[in-house]
Amino acid sequence: MSFTLAIVGRPNVGKSTLFNRLVGKRLALVDDQPGVTRDLREGEAKLGDLRFTVIDTAGLENETDDSLPARMRRLTERAVDMADVCLFMIDARAGILPDDRVFAEILRRRAKRVILAANKAEGAAADAGYFEAFELGIGEPMRLSAEHGEGMPDLYSVLLPISEEFEERAVQDAPEVEVTVHDEEDEVLAEDVPMPTEAKPLQIAIIGRPNAGKSTLVNQIIGEDRMLTGPEAGITRDAISVQKTWDGVPMRIFDTAGMRKRAKVQEKLEKLSVSDGIRAIKFAEVVVVLLDAAIPFETQDLKIADLAEREGRAVVVAVNKWDIEDEKQEKLKWLKDEFEHVLPQLRGAPLVTISARTGRGMDRLQKAIMQAYTTWNRRIPTGQLNRWLEGMISRHPPPAPQGKRIKLRYMTQAKTRPPGFVVMCSHPDKLPESYSRYLVNGLREDFDMPGTPIRLHMRGQSDQNPFKGRRKKNAGALKKHKRSLQSKQGGERQ
To answer: Record-annotated residues binding GTP 1 (predicted)?
Structure first.
């Protein structure tokens, strides 16, 4: 990417709509109500032949206290400081408001370059607001309609010379982007597990109930206040991703919105936020289920962990706010016992205690993530699997429904991520679920695959001998051939 463009402006002027158009995907949540975006979201923008990084920011509000809008404003100001270019967006239909003048003054002082854009400028109703924008004194405004795609050629014309100016810097920065993983990381992941790289980092989603500390944890991992945090529940709305090389392993970490019970999710915006979080789980490789140490294993926590398991992701359970826990040893023993009881489908998954606020336990969390990732990618040789299967059958033979024993003939691993196995057997529809669980639990224990989802499929294989009936068929054909030869010979004599 040659340069960074931050889209800033008052709430509800269309910043996220323009962001989605530039990245070519519906990454940012969009709604009619103001203040939907709260965190900074980065994306790879494409405009013609231009490639650059675009940042969607929270709406600027004229607040300076420690309230949520004020914290959002400080985060946006941070984006202004680090961006190469700021696209200051106003609403042409609403005209220039007092806050627009305040923020224009801030951008004049803090931004390196400012482009003024009058959005929603389609039609004559926007003319008055467009001409009013000249009063801001930061250059000629550009007519845009982010929703309908109007004005994109004008934006291209303005950004083209900026892109050319930054080309030299992009060439110098390119080697840093294409860093390859060194030999020491090969020791982290054994058994031919595919190594994360800068191009394909390890995808991690952090999920949990509202106010569990997900955004604080992401900030602690990356070492900066990148995510908006605070005592209020439900601050995060979008699933925001950040990239970080953590202990030598390139990772992309998704901070997701807190997931409440479905019955409590009434607002359209919260439904969109939860859907965004579920989409992040589907794209993730490892899911960190974050629990609050004060109230762990609530019903909603169990549903969230079960969702990650059903999606086939590697799962790590992290218990946050451990720094304020008094009886640590007793609580830890209770947590492990309760985990085995309430989440049997994840038995053996890594469970770590952390404090996202102080940073305690971050090294244990990183090791647990890598352990879960390694197990998720494990592959077992077919010969070893079939020797194991013989032992399992001799120890506990499959049942014989209606006096006819089910035969398990052959087993192989069909896939990894998560590990998936196929067993060729007779009458797979009659094999009880309890026997499949017996095999899955045996796989976990004997091949050191605790906690990872395991998929076991029974595939039918007929008892019938494939050569049965072929001898009779061949004998009939031989007799027919002999008769035809005899008739031919009789004709020749005559």
So the answer is: 9-16, 56-60, 119-122
